[in-house]
Design a protein that fits this description.
The structure is a homodimer.
Chain A (H helix, E strand, L loop, with lengths): L1 H6 L7 H14 L5 H8 L4 E6 L5 H16 L3 E6 L3 H10 L7 E5 L17 E4 L9 E4 L2 H14 L5 E5 L7 H15 L9 E3 L5 H13 L6 E4 L2 H13 L9 E3 L16 E3 L2 H17 L9 E3 L3 E3 L7
Parallel strand pairs in A: 1-2, 1-3, 3-4, 4-5, 5-11, 6-7, 6-8, 8-9
Antiparallel strand pairs in A: 10-12
The first copy, chain A, binds a DNA duplex through helix 1 and helix 3.
GO molecular function (chains A, B): DNA-binding transcription factor activity; transcription cis-regulatory region binding
Keywords (chains A, B): DNA-binding, Transcription, Transcription regulation
InterPro entries (chains A, B): HTH_LacI (IPR000843), LacI/GalR-like_sensor (IPR046335), Lambda_DNA-bd_dom_sf (IPR010982), Peripla_BP_I (IPR028082)
DNA sequence: TTGTAAGCGTTATCAT
DNA sequence: ATGATAACGCTTACAA
């Protein structure tokens, strides 16, 4: 017991005793057994992070932010790759099993209809744009405002026929929110919203962006600006436009969303929205640790929205 | 005890008893407490992965491969960001503390001199090019062969003054091995090795590649090919050459190393070495699980080298 | 086939 | 200030 008191810096240990204990610990190369401590305390000091994929510029950056924020609180992070709605739900129910004190879950496949499933008696914070007002704390991007700002920027640079690259819009999600922001900006500028300029893609990678840009160019679609809802799509679009012999920013201006590190060095460098990833990561970990530390069952749940800033580069003539 | 037998699928449980137990488990929403099981078994089912940074195209891809390989074995992965030699050594000694059954350590800051520190009585597999023949299992890249192949490819495409972008060469590491491969290829082709063509940079990111390429162009250095020891450097070089008004591949050909996903879509698309990341990840996890499962103390240690293939794209006129 | 006992290493509680 | 005791929930060994 005295050893335990020394290890945990409890008061009421005579300095000379403490010294003796520390000396013995050093001599015997003693290490606390965390499995035993966890068993006793019911805590592991590990939080789970469930993301669709670690190897993506966006989720990689998010993971880095969360690992850093957890480190500041002496927590470690276990990573789960979800890749599908089913796995997201699994991560949720397996979180306690996997020895996590709590879970930060990126909801990319789940939708508002799954919201009830989030009711677990285990600390959870959800990231993403598909579930709002659910039974858990939630951190989202400033989608509407940022999409408006990005579109407005294209307008200010003289674009009049602005296309958007987004996903299928069936329910509230990243695509629908950013599409709404785009529409609001067009309306505010007095520009018509032309359905042929709304280009929907199945995935948000560079491949899809490049393919779609080539199709748009070949089909003779009239456009002078493109707002892509991810930087990956936007870099793909830059590639596709180059293939089609279209000059950026002279003929068409392009703006993305995420400010992944590659966007600064692409040719041309990519204008984009920087969504304060680190701030969001910090808030998510903060909410989770509060839930972990509070003994009482769930009180009201918080919905937080991050900040953003516009980064103007060559692709919009900056 | 009978419950335990049911949970662990032990024989000698009467089917009717098993049913009763399962029914009660369902009714009570029973979950095994892994902390208790871990304490008893001395295993956690979690392996640690220590990488310099998760948010990099290369380490992100590596992490994805390792998570996938671990998943196939029903293991989870805890991620540690090291970022420095000290943290790499810490990860080593903290691995057992952090409840990992074993550790996959990327040695980017440690060097051969630290090799002895790897002698821990805890399963460890080291990745990287700085430590060979150490007291642990080790998986490395096919640096020499791949660097030779990349350089030879530039020669075959008609380059005669081939520069290399690598790091400072003080001891055996990624830079030195790839530089050696480069030299071997030049020699085999009967080309002289000009010291002014060996360009050393402090870090291997896009920023450094771009800066250095601009300097090389401005200084009037005569070169018609560049072998960059990472794709990030190479993409930066493409950017820097574009800034200097130099045409790729017409005036200068560029090849990288890693085959990160961005390289396919860059403008121009980047020729590169694809080092079979998934194969290396699979081998690392395989070696680690063997160490974890074998009771005997360390037998001989294995040094494995991965495969590679050349990916020819626009930046070398492919 | 089922159940009892002991112990994994820690810490909360309570005596001393 | 120090230490004895019990308990966290599980599994190995062994008894019934």
């Amino acid at each position: 017991m005295t050893v335990s008191n020394v290890i945990n810096d409890h008061p009421n240990v005579r300095p000379s005793t403490r010294e003796k204990v520390l000396e013995a610990m050093a001599r015997l190369d003693y290490r606390v057994n965390l499995a035993a401590r966890n068993l006793r305390k019911g805590r592991t000091g590990v939080i789970g992070l469930a993301v669709p994929e670690v190897n993506s510029p966006y989720y990689g950056r998010l993971a880095a932010g969360i690992i850093a924020a957890a480190e500041r609180r002496n927590l470690r992070v276990g990573i789960e790759q979800t890749a599908s709605r089913e796995n997201e739900l699994d991560a949720l129910s397996l979180s306690r099993n996997h020895q996590y004190d709590g879970l930060i879950l990126t909801a990319a496949g789940m939708s508002q209809a799954d919201s009830e499933r989030l009711k677990v008696d285990h600390p959870v914070v959800v990231l993403g744009d598909r579930i709002f007002g659910g039974p858990v704390d939630h951190v989202a991007m400033p989608n509407l405002e940022a999409a408006r700002a990005a579109t407005r920027h294209l307008v200010e640079r003289g674009c009049r026929r602005i296309a958007i690259l987004c996903g299928a819009v069936e329910e509230v999600d990243t695509s629908s929110l950013r599409l709404t922001g785009y529409r609001q900006a067009l309306e505010a500028a007095g520009l018509p919203s032309d359905p042929t300029l709304i280009q929907q893609v199945g995935r948000f990678g560079m491949r899809e962006g490049a393919q779609r840009a080539r199709v748009m160019a070949r089909s003779g679609l009239d456009f002078d600006g493109v707002f892509c809802i991810t930087d990956s799509l936007a870099m793909g679009v830059l590639r596709g436009l180059a293939d089609a012999g279209i000059q950026v920013p002279e003929q068409v201006k392009v703006i993305g969303f995420d400010n992944v590190s590659e966007s600064e060095f692409f040719i041309p460098s990519l204008s984009t929205v920087d969504p304060d990833h680190d701030g969001m990561a910090e808030r998510a970990v903060d909410l989770l640790t509060r839930r972990i530390e509070q003994i009482q069952p769930s009180t009201g749940h918080r919905d937080l929205v991050g900040d953003f800033s516009l980064v103007v580069r060559e692709s919009t003539g900056g």
